[in-house]
Amino acid sequence: MLKKLIRILGLGSGAENGLSRDPATVFRKVYLAQMRLATQIKAHAELAPYPHVAQQLNRVADEKLRSCEVLRVALSKLGSYVSKDVPAEIYSGGNHWERMARDLRDQSALEQTLSELSGLLVHEAPEESEFLSRMLVGERSHREVLTDLLMPGMDGREVLE
């Protein structure tokens, strides 16, 4: 009973280099990162100087929010719960281009996190690892949209270091 409670709270000792191999802890981390970035992109859409840019940013943010809902369902199946109303720190910039560059950097960081966590779970929780890998595919399309908005004509690969 105590082990289950520890797992539900995400306090398990399955951490290696600060990364847990517990699927619920991993999904919670992804949920929080995804929710933060969705909220940030939504806020940046409100400040976008052009309607077509705002529309694209809102579409990306809405897709991220749908992914968050899928993660919430997956978390509940694992016996873990997270609030829909997670306070999120929004990073901004002095102008539209700085905000877009920040969104693109944060998007790339999210993709890196998904890739690392998927690899971390591949042996202990292969279904959850596959779930994260499928999420990563969608996230790459978000990077392409953000890259196109920031630098039309680029395909996203040139931006990543």
Describe the structure in brief.
The chain has 161 residues and is an all-alpha fold. Helix content is 68%, strand content 2%. It is built from five helices and two strands.
How would you portray this structure in words?
The protein has 161 residues and is an all-alpha fold. The chain is 68% helix and 2% strand. The protein has five helices and two strands, in the order H-E-E-H-H-H-H. A two-stranded antiparallel sheet has the order 1-2. A hairpin with a 2-residue loop joins strand 1 and strand 2. The longest helix is centred in the middle third of the chain and has 27 residues, at 51-77. Mean pLDDT is 85; it is low at 2-17 and 156-161.
Proportion of beta-strand residues: under 5%
Tell me the major beta sheet: 2 strands, antiparallel
**Unreliable stretches, pLDDT < 50, 5 or more residues?**
2-17, 156-161
Strand-and-helix sequence, N→C? HEEHHHH
If you average the pLDDT, what whole number results? 85
Overall helicity? 55-70%
Q: What gyration radius follows from the Cα positions, in whole Å?
A: 17 Å
List the quaternary state of the chains. single chain
Task: Give me the side-by-side strand order of the main sheet.
Answer: 1-2
Q: Distance between the terminal alpha carbons, to the nearest Å?
A: 45 Å
| Count of helix runs | 5
Shape category: elongated
Secondary-structure blueprint of this entry?
Layout: H1 2-8, E1 15-16, E2 19-20, H2 23-46, H3 51-77, H4 96-121, H5 126-150
Antiparallel strand pairs: 1-2
Helix pairs in contact: 2-3, 2-4, 3-5, 4-5
